[in-house]
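quick one if you have a minute, typing this from the bus. below you get a single protein, a line of residues and a line of whole numbers that encode the local backbone shape. could you go over both lines and see whether the tokens make sense for that sequence. anything you notice is useful, everything is just below.
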Amino acid sequence: MPARVSESILLRTYPLREADLIVSFLTRDQGKLRGVARAARRPKSRFGAGLERLSHVRMFYYQRENRELVTLDSCDLIQSAFDAAPDYEMGVAMDFLAEVSEQMLPAAEPNERHFRLLLAMMEHLRPGGNDRIWSAVTYFSLWSVRLAGVLPELRVASESRRIAEEMFRTPVGQLTPRAWDRTTAADLRRSLVRTIEDHIERKLLSAPHLESL
């Protein structure tokens, strides 16, 4: 039963029996895994604050073939998520990042790009407070579906892009009335995604970390 060490981000925990936890975590090298952390709910647990959601840790665990759950041994905390969640609004945004990752990522399928996306979002949220929440959540939502292969390639007509720019910059009451049909609506949706992508990415301080995505 080989011992493994993986750089990981904690996604979610579930209670198991009296003192144990089932832990869902995203590793850089093996994708999303789940494991059992024995005695993790006891006051003197060897896991400490490393099992808080979105904590960046170095996870030590044992993995057997044909077993769905790994056995967690301990973890070293690299970066805590506590300093990025000073209030309720920020906490809800972090819950959203963790829950989307938990639901969208398949088990045991390496996805380093999503791993680096989560790290970049956490780095972006830490220093700026609530004024950074909307940009981080919007950017993460767009890239998570793109990296999952759900969002198709976007081809945008110049007129639709101009309309999207107007919608992005102009108050709703000042928008120019236009006739709509299915083709216009579909092309405009693609334009809005492109426009959001452009504006949000320019404002993200963590954009250099995402250039290689």
Summary: The CA atoms of residues 146 and 152 lie 7 Å apart. The mean pLDDT is 80. The domain at 3-150 is CATH 2.40.50.140 (OB fold (Dihydrolipoamide Acetyltransferase, E2P)).
